[in-house]
Request: fold
Amino acid sequence: MPTLEQMLACVRVCQTLSNFYTDIHLFRYDEKREEIYILAGETIGITILRNGRWEFDDDTEA
Reply:
């Protein structure tokens, strides 16, 4: 079950994506890692941690 901090952060992130007319393609809560993952637009990946902090996925290859 997501934490309250995760749920509030999720609403803020989804609202921001919506404000920029960005499609949300995937929304998933991983019970083992206890993280929420959102895939939006063409290349936006966001992970929301248990404490409500969120971060962009860094998929750049070196």
About this structure: Residues 4-56 form one domain.
